[in-house]
């Protein structure tokens, strides 16, 4: 929930194989906001969108992200709907990795 005077940031992804590109995105995002919320795509949504489930289960992926200093909160992403995410977390800024560059969605 948005706290007056604090800028909440939001990003989301599968984070199936956490790597340095993810870490750089999260660290850069955190520098641009006061609090960073990270949505982690559920196994079911990943199967629906990518036609495969991640190598590691949702609970493990969320635990790895919670361990990072730059991440303030980790939540499951159950659908590809930024407006619904905003309604729940009231973030002021959203971050997207460059792997989406040139993609229509």
The SSE order reads: EHEHHEHE
Instruction: Return the CATH topology.
Output: Rossmann fold
In CATH, the homologous superfamily goes by the name HUPs
CATH class: Alpha Beta
The global form is: globular
How do the strands of the widest beta sheet line up side by side? 3-2-1-4
Average pLDDT level: 90
> What is the count of helical runs?
4
What is the terminal-to-terminal distance?
Answer: 26 Å
Spans with pLDDT under 50 lasting ≥5 residues? none
Integer count of domains: 1
State which percent range the strand residues make up.
Answer: 15-25%
Assign the structural class, choosing from mainly alpha, mainly beta, alpha/beta, alpha+beta, or little secondary structure. Answer: alpha/beta
Percent of residues in helices: 25-40%
Structural commentary:
This protein is of the alpha/beta class and 105 residues long. It has a single domain (8-96), classed as Rossmann fold, CATH 3.40.50.620. Helices cover 35% and strands 19% of the residues. It contains four helices and four strands. A four-stranded parallel beta sheet has the order 3-2-1-4, with helices on both faces. β1 (8-13), α1 and β2 (35-41) form a beta-alpha-beta unit. The longest helix has 12 residues, at 20-31. The protein is globular and about 40 Å long. The model has no long low-confidence stretch (mean pLDDT 90).
Q: Keyphrases for this structure?
A:
single chain; alpha/beta; Rossmann fold; 4 helices
Concise account of the structure shown:
This protein is an alpha/beta fold. It contains four helices and four strands. Strands 3-2-1-4 form a four-stranded parallel beta sheet, with helices on both faces.
């Amino acid at each position: 929930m948005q706290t007056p005077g604090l800028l909440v940031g939001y990003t989301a992804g599968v984070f199936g194989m956490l790597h340095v590109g993810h870490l750089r995105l999260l660290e850069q995002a955190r520098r641009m906001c006061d609090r960073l919320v990270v949505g982690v795509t559920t196994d079911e949504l990943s199967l629906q969108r990518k036609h495969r489930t991640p190598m590691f289960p949702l609970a493990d992926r969320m635990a790895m992200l919670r361990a990072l200093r730059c991440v303030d909160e980790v939540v499951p992403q159950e659908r590809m709907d930024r407006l619904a995410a905003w309604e729940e977390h009231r973030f002021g800024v959203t971050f997207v990795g460059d792997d989406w560059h040139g993609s229509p969605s």
